[in-house]
Target: Heme exporter protein CcmB
Amino acid sequence: MLTCALAVCGKDLKLILTRGAGLLQALLLGLLLVFLFSLSLNAGDRLSPQAAAAMFWLASAFCQVLIFNMLYAVEESAQARLCLVLLPAPVQAVWLGKAMAGFLLLAAAQCVFVPALFVFLGQSLGQGWHWALCGMLLGDVGMAASGSLLGALSVGRSGRESLLSIVLFPLLVPMLLAGVRLASMGMDPDPLLEDAPRWLGLAASFDGLFLAAGLLLFPFVYSGDD
Model:
């Protein structure tokens, strides 16, 4: 299963990075959100770390929707979805491979969003940066697992982008809340670090929930039927 998942991940990354336009669109959307929010600040003002963290995860969430729409549209546009279903491996390998590809693409996008917070929103690195990094990794795992499952749910249907956004965002609220709290610790000069393990535990719990849901439900969600 893992070998097949790695093959699916490599195929998707090669196709997305070769085309480039879709990934660039996701990056520009996230950067545009950060830049437009910075226009509300007066010269010399500094946004609060919690508000900046919220902007970071909001940009990441919109980027996630575009990424998984792209990943599942690859087979849809070529009408090759049935080929993945017929692979000599559990169909969960498709979910895992696309989740891995989405995780890597989302992490790459966030490597662009973080400097944008420092440049446009006047943030600086705080004492809790290691908690923020752990929170970002756990948040990305959960977003990749849920995005891969719900991306399959919306495949082949009109209004795909709207369906994925409507279903996905409410499920991500607790994880995004934990991510915002942890990310704010990485930019706050005087963070309350004693709360960090509790927020990490919340993020890890939802990671486990989304991973289990993907493994159990993906075969019922993703099929070769149009």
Observations:
- The mean pLDDT is 83.
